[in-house]
Design goal:
alpha+beta, three-stranded antiparallel β-sheet
Length: about 110
C-alpha cells in the first residue's frame, strides 16, 4: 500500500524509501564492478629509467641540498637531499613553485 498525501501524490517518506532502496542496489552493483576491475589480470607496469643528480638550491642563504631526478635530460622530480646536514631531506617552500615555473611550457 502506497502512502499518499491529500493531493494524491506519493508522500515524502515513500519517496525517500524508494530512493534509498535504489541507491543501495546501485552502490552494491558498482562495488562489485569495481572489485572485478581491481582483480582483473593485468600486465605489470615498468617505470622508465631515470638519473639522480645531487646539488643545492641557490635561492636563499640556506643552500638546501637537493636530489633532482631526470628523464631524457629533463628534470621531473625535486626532493631534498636526506644526507645534507642543513635541510636533512626538507626544502624551503619556494623550491617546488620555482621548479614548476621553470617547467612551464611558455618559459
Amino acid at each position: 500500500m502506497q502512502e499518499s498525501n491529500q493531493s494524491g501524490k506519493a508522500s515524502r517518506r515513500a519517496f525517500l524509501k524508494g530512493i534509498m532502496g535504489t541507491a543501495a542496489v546501485s552502490t552494491a552493483a558498482l562495488s562489485l564492478d569495481a572489485q572485478a576491475r581491481i582483480h582483473a589480470p593485468h600486465e605489470l607496469e615498468t617505470l622508465k629509467d631515470y638519473e639522480e643528480h645531487w646539488g643545492f638550491c641557490d635561492m636563499c642563504y640556506w643552500r638546501c641540498g637537493l636530489k633532482v631526478r631526470t628523464r631524457d635530460g629533463k628534470a621531473f622530480k625535486i626532493d631534498g637531499n636526506p644526507e645534507h646536514p642543513l635541510n636533512r631531506g626538507w626544502c624551503v617552500a619556494r623550491v617546488i613553485p620555482a621548479f614548476r615555473w621553470r617547467l612551464h611550457p611558455t618559459v
